[in-house]
Every structure is written in C-alpha cells, then in structure tokens.
Amino acid sequence: MSFYINIIHRPEMVPEYLQKGAEEGKQEDLARGTVIQESLDIFRIQQQTAHDNGLRTTIQMTYSSLFNNEAVALAREHHQRFGDEIGSTFLGLQCHEFRNKFKSKELAIWLFSMDDKRKIVDEVFNKFHEVFGFYPTSTGSYYMDAELVNYIKKQYPMIKIAIATCWEEGPKAYRNANNSWYTIFDGSPWNPWIPSKHNIHCPASDEEDDIGIVAIPHLSRDLLAVFDGPGSYYGAHPQNILRGMVYEDHEIPYFKNLVDQYRSMIRYNRGYAYNMMYVGPGWMSKNGRWEADYDFLLKSYREGMAYYGQLKKEGEAIDVTMSEFADIYRQNRPYTRPECTLWKDILYGSRRQFFWYVDPWMRFCLDMNEGGAIIDLRPYAARLIRPCGVGTRHIQDASYPFLVQSLYRAGYFTHYAGEGAVKSCKFSHKEEEVDLCTCRTLASFSEEGNIRTVTLDPVDIEFDKFTIRVQSVFRLVEGTGEIEIVRRIIDATGPEAEITIDEYITGCYGTTEYPEDLTGIRLSLKGISENKSIEYAYKCREAEISDIIEAEAIIPQISTRLTMRTDTKGAAGYFREGFAFSPMYTIGIKSTVKEKGELRTWLKVEKAS
Amino acid sequence: MAQGRKGKLNYRCPRCLIREIDMDMLYDQEADEYYCLRCSFTGNEQEVLRLNAQFRDKYRDRTRRITDF
Chain B contact for A282, CB < 8 A? Predict the structure, then answer.
C-alpha cells in the first residue's frame, strides 16, 4: 500500500498574478525589483514549509529564474541539503530575456506555433544546461500537447515526467475567469498516466504508443465538485480552496478530506494512490488573494504541508520527487491497467457518488445519483491527433472530445423539447416508462483477477399496479475496451407483468457546451436477418429491428465507432436520429422479460477506420 | 464621480461569484462602495461579506472533517 506525494515549487520571478493584478495603477515592468524579491521570498517560505515538515520537493525552474543568481543558488543548495530535484517548467517564461528573444507576450507554451515551441524548448533546456551543467529530467506546464512532448522526447530523451494537463480545466475554467483564461483542456485522466504519442490525454495502449514520459496532472482535484464547478476552487492547492471559499472561521477541513479521499484510491488501484501539490508564488501574495489576507494564505499552505508531513511521519505517505515518481510508476505498470475510483461527495453534504474510470480505450463516469448513468464518455481508442496552438485548427481548444458530457449537453432531460447526452436504461410496462436516471442509489466496487465490478444498490421502480426491484452491475474486463452492463430485475410484486428493459445511449460529440454538426454520422443496426442504416441529416428518422446483434454509431468527425451488443436472444435494436433543436443520436437495445429477467449489453468505443 | 480603484483584498463580485464567475470589483472611495463592471452589483464591504457567507452555504460539509472513505 503506497500513497505517493509530489510537492512542486517554482521560483517565478514575474508571477502571473503579482505583476499587474495586485498593485493598482502600475504599468507592466518585467524587472520590477520589489516583485521579484517578493516572489523569491514566497518561494523560500514554501520550500522552508516543506522542509520543516520533512518533505522533499521538486523545484521547477522557470526560464526567468534561470537568470536570477539567487534563485539558482537556492535551488542548488536545496538539492544538496534536502535532496530536492531541480527540474524545469514552461510556466513563467516571460521576462526581459524572453521578450528580447521571442518578441512575444504569449505566456502559454501550448499556444505557440509548433515552430516557436521547438525554439522555446531548445532555449529553455539549453539555458538550464548552461546554468546547472545538466539537463532536467522533469518538466511541465498547465498543458503539454503530444506534439510538444514528442519533440522534447526526441531532442531531450532524459525527460521522464511532465505536468501535462489540468484535470477538467476547460470551458468551466474559461467561464469562471470571466471568459478570459485560455486553459481549455477537458478530458484527461485525473491521476498519473503514460500518455499516447498521438494525444496527451489518452493513456498509451502499448510500448509503440508510449510517448516516453509519465504524465501527472496539475493538481489533485475533487472528482465530483470539479465536474460541475471551477477547477480552481476544489483541489489539493490550499489557495484554490480559499478561492472557492470552502472554509469557515479560517478553518479548512476540506483540504484534509480531499487528501484522504485520494489516499483511499489504493482500494481501487491495487494499493497505489497519488497526490500532488503545486502552488505558484503568486498565490501567496503579500497583498492577499481571493478575499484572504496574507496570514490566511500562509496558514492554509502551512496546514496543508503539515498534513502531508504528518502522513509521512505516520508511515501513511511517501514523498518523492517527480523523477523518482516516474521511475516508481513505470515499475509493474501494464499499459492496459485502468485507473478507477469510486468518489463520494465531500463538499455539498449529499451522499452522491461518481465512479471514474480510465484506460487506453476510454474515460467514463457513472453517476449514482442517476442510477449509474454514464455522464461522461471520451473515446480514447480513437487516438485523435489534435494539435493545438497558433497555426492549428484548434488554437486554444485542447480538450479531448466527448461522446457524452451530460452537463454540457443536457443529460437526462428535464424539459419537453428533445434529448440530452447520457447513457442509461429505461423500464417500461404498457404506457408507463421509468428511466434509471430518476433512481438515486449508491455503489460498491470489487475486483477479481482482471475484472473490476461496480455493483449498484437495488432501486425500486413503481408502476401503477406493481413494483419491481432492479439492480445494475458494470463489469470491466481489463484489456477489452468494453463496458459490460447488466440490468437485472431481482424482485417484482407483479410477477406476470411484462417489462421492457431498454438500454440506450444518447450521444453527440464535441468539447464545449455548443452543438457540433452531426451531419454524416452513420447509425446502423445489424441483426440476424436484416440490417438498417442511415446517415445523419437531422430528419428525425427512427428504425428498429428484431434479433439485434449490434447497434452502431460511427462519428467520422472524431474517428470514433460506438457500438452496443447483447447476448440476449430475441432482443431488438434501434436507432433514433435527432433534429436541429435536439442535436443528438440514440442507439439502443431492448428486451421484454417477465419476473426476474435481465438484459446484458456491452458498450464499446473504437477507432473508426 | 470618483475613479474606481482596486479595493483591499481584491473582492470579487458576490453576485457573479454565486454563478461561479470570478469578477474583480472596483471600489469607489467617495461612495464607499464596490461595484461590478459585469452584473451591476453595488454594495459596501458589509454587504459583500454577507453575500460571500451566503455563497459558502452551499458547502454543507465545509466545517466537517470526513475520515470514512
């Protein structure tokens, strides 16, 4: 059982937030001595706080700090005295030297053109080598696209780990910052992974697909709160929590609750769990931040670090540097092994649970408040090559596309005009129909061999004359890229009644709240005796066949093939095209049973050729 | 009217905060009030603090140490 912690600090000479924001009325001045000194002081306090608690850190040198003798000397000293790692970051690029060389105010490495990215990488790493006499083995930014990492790995093969994405920092983060913060990259794993060469969000499928580094997320975030709310409110970053105002009377138990829930992930991941804290100096400004004065900012940081230190002293946590973690992570880590967790609400006082799952084929989330509905589905199997930055089709939009994102695309529908993206199941008898989305429940997790199972507590569905008790089970066989879903009627007060079980997925695709063009999506049904197929044209068409083998949606826009199949004899399959006011497609499989019947289906995403 | 300036502790607009938008306000010293350039909120510090407390109410577990996972 091992809970690993990465503590990462960066000496940021010109912090994003300090330079202009906190001091009203001053013009931008990249060399302002007071700002640099304050920033270094904060970095020093952060380092001391970690060391006082017996924790080692990774010092990610910013480009600007490589020109500051004091910052360089501090890094050297702490490396020698405490065993801290000296790494490099592409955050904090801006300084006089950068401006003179690159003539740009751009601050985000992933948003430069590919040509500029290459030049900046060379400049940053060679400057690092000039200062320290060696190349770093760890690097990072808020986002590192696969094209950038592929270049780094080719030119600087010693790099073994990078902070590669911020979990679910997408349209929500953009909106949270009054539509001004261009970190738009939803869709990654929430915990470390080995990325694909094709897309940084996707875990690599095999050695050939392995990009050559271990990726870690920027911050360990609340897997329920951040799915709906801003990423910068709810994570293992004390000042993020202050930004979200998750405290009362200057007390912040939420931080420890969050860390402890991450610790609990050993239960779902074969004894391994991970947490990271990465706070830039700007978040601890002497002028205060987010309605918190400096004393409260400092208190929150010290308490957070003290908790990590306490866990270490109690033998409950292992502090490692980034590169050490990369080595540990790669030991005994088959590419097909998923990361999963049953996350519970620790914020709003509900009992809501999400089950998150990531493997090289897909990422999905089950919402137990909606009877185990899939509310997020990303087709990693498609391995979408989707470069970002200037000169690409998606300059700022670096998210990995979804097939289902229930919050961006309505989900279980609560008004009359259309459908929303969700994967669920309906039970019907004559004219009555109940969707499991309306049946709140809880779940438990179990594992046997290479099969992971999520078993939901039974729910009662009330029809006019009788009640049935239904249980849902999700089975995940490692290496198959499929979700097996069993809907079982385990009890009924009207045993003779015929019940139709209708397993369906209503999907779309995209990266934002706004609809994309679905034209050309192919919906198909393959049965024992007939096949049907249409190309999506917003014509509201529907089809159904008996003896279904497979229902399929091919979404050429994101090179994805989505299928449902069943082993239930006599089941029917159907598809439903949407219309412009309801830009969705639905495929489903249904079967009519009496008494204690069940429907078993398999959902799969693949790359469409 | 006086020039708006940053107030102490860069108060965000509490009305925008409730819809999870971080919008820094400006402070009018003459009127002793903060104002939002986005949603037209105006209020003194006491009003901002009152609404911020209201914002925190949604976190029903904000004071609870949870150890059962």
Answer: no
Flag whether the ipTM exceeds 0.85. Answer: yes
CA distance A487 to A599: 5
C-alpha closest to that of A486 among A599, A357, A355, A603: A599
In tens, the pLDDT along A445-482 reads 999 999 999 999 999 999 999 999 999 999 999 999 99
A524 in Cβ contact with A489 (< 8 Å): no
Q: Which pLDDT value is given to residue A22?
A: 40
CA distance B1 to chain A (A): 18
Gap between the Cα atoms of B26 and B20, Å rounded: 18
Per-residue confidence band for A287, with pLDDT thresholds at 50, 70 and 90: confident
Secondary structure class of A377 (helix, strand, coil): strand
Q: Closest chain B residue to A256 measured between Cα atoms?
A: B65
Whether pTM exceeds 0.90? yes
Best B10, B24, B25, B27 member to test A by mutation, with max A CBs in 10 Å, is B10
Nearest to A348 among B22, B59, B65 (CB): B59
Residues in chain A: 609
What does the radius of gyration of chain B's CA atoms come to, in whole angstroms?
A: 15
CB pair distance less than 8 Å for A290 and B52: no
Tokens standing for A47? Answer: 């380092």
Nearest to A318 by CA among A268, A263, A238, A267: A263
Those residues whose C-beta lies under 8 Å from the C-beta of residue B33, and which sit 6 or more positions away, are B27, B42, B43, B44
Question: CB B66 to CB A245 under 8 A?
Answer: no
- Taking the CA atoms of residue A47, residue A49, residue A53 and residue A55 in that order, the dihedral angle to the nearest 10 degrees is -20
Report the alpha-carbon distance of residue A370 to residue A346 in Å, rounded: 18
Question: Considering only CB atoms, which chain A residues are within 8 Å of B6?
Answer: 22, 24
Contacts of A263 in chain B (CB under 8 A): 69
Whose tokens are 């004219």? That residue is A431
Instruction: Say what the pLDDT of residue A34 is.
Output: 74
- H/E stretch holding A100 reads helix A96-102
Q: How far is A12 from chain B (nearest CA, A)?
A: 21
Q: Which residues of B touch A176 (CB under 8 A)?
A: 20-22
Q: What is the C-alpha to C-alpha distance for residues A514 and A409, in angstroms, rounded to an integer? A: 8
DSSP string of A581-603, one letter each residue: TEEEEEEEEEEEEESS-EEEEEE
Q: Taking residues A235-250, what's their average pLDDT?
A: 96
Tens of pLDDT, residues A370-426: 999 999 999 999 999 999 999 999 999 999 999 999 999 999 987 777 899 999 999
